[in-house]
Amino acid sequence: MARKKQPAPKSKNKVKKPLFIIAIAIVLIAFVLYWLFATSATAFDEKSRMITIEKDNTQKSAVLKVFEEAGILQFPSLLGIAGAPLNIWDKMKPGRYEIKKGQSIIDIVRMLKNGRLAEVKLVINRVRTKAELAKLISKQFMTDSSKVMEYLSSNDSLAIIGSDTTLLFTKIIPDTYNYFADASMQTILQKLSIGSKNFWEKNNRLQKAAAINMTPEQVYILASIVDEETNYDSDKYKIASVYINRLKKQMPLQACPTIKYAMNDFTITRIYEKYLTNPSPYNTYKVKGLPPGPICTPSPKTIDIVLDAPQTDYIYFVAKSDFSGYHHFSNNYEEHNSRAKEYQKKLDEYMMKKRAEKP
Questions:
Q1: Could you write out the DSSP letters of every residue in 74-111?
Q2: Most distant CA pair in the chain, distance
Q3: Strands 316-319 and 327-330
Q4: What average pLDDT does the segment 126-144 reach?
């Protein structure tokens, strides 16, 4: 009987070769995907860049266009590919996002999906008007300056922080405040108000204000005037004492910075007689006592200078005629008048010289 021919055994190499190729392909694909999505996707050298997604432009095409025009990513199209599985486009939160150098596409997608908006710093130094404050806020937050101005001009809006349009600045201590970019006006002002409250509760400030028979608001208003008078702390102490003495004697403060505020012209370098007739309640040449509100946001140090003002008998001061920025202080009108005339003479000579130098 003839034997059946047995089939030849399959080669093990023929089986292993396709599996090996597939494994290599998987590894290569994984490497490419890792390189594309998990390594640095940014295309800038700075520490970070800000990008803003507007309220009405959260659709995929609009967001990708924003990234492409900003030149933030090496391959902007990858953002669309990586974002699709997580369906971030239907959940996009408008706002300002911070893209950090070295971030991967995956990190950026997760940030957008979770709506992790950037933190912004509101840096407040010397601000003189609500319009200046509105402009400062609108630069940092996603809101129009006109809307901010409308909010700051409403007593109903400001009631939530226990203030009004006249005393608003007394709730603002110059400092750096951190917020998320989508913070509302209510949130912004509440944080400023809390900062003010914390400031007054430290270093015996409330007790010091009471010791000179002034409220924190009155100290703040006086400090705003002192802050506009000079940049020299040594003079600020004396100027504060002059104004405190004038208040005690019920004399008009006759503070030149309040005239500039009343005129809404902070470029004025010389106060003329015609300015002194301004009917504004901030005209301290006509109205006795403190003005109804501050004329700027004074530095915390100037507030402390007012609280720690020395006891003096000075009731007058005038800029020194050497234009050093320092002042001469006196306790009688005769001496003050003599120094004032000296300063005016030097100032006239200086102005004439400047006019003569003009072509």
A1: S-THHHHHHHTTTTGGGSPPPEEEEEETT-BHHHHHHH
A2: 148
A3: antiparallel
A4: 92
CB 161 within 8 A of CB 189: yes
Residue 23 to residues 19, 27, 28, 32, 33, Cα–Cα distance (Å): 6, 6, 9, 14, 15
Q: Is the pLDDT of residue 31 over 90?
A: no
Q: How confident is the model at residue 37 (pLDDT cuts 50, 70, 90)?
A: low
pLDDT at 7: 58
Residue 247 pLDDT grade (very low, low, confident, very high; cuts 50, 70, 90): very high
- The string over 295-332, giving b where at least 16 C-beta atoms fall within 10 Å of a residue's C-beta and e elsewhere, is bbbbbeebbbbbbebeeeebbbbbbbbeeeeebbbbee
Dist CA 238 CA 137 (whole Å): 34
Whether the predicted pLDDT of 38 surpasses 90: no
331 contacts: CB under 8 Å, gap ≥ 6: 312, 313, 314, 315, 316
Angle at 48 between CA 46 and CA 54, to 5 degrees: 130
Nearest to 261 by CA among 252, 251, 271: 271
What Cα–Cα distance (Å) separates residue 141 from each residue in 93, 176, 183?
15, 15, 7
Q: Which residue do the tokens 């504060």 mark?
A: 240
Cα 209–chain centre separation: 27
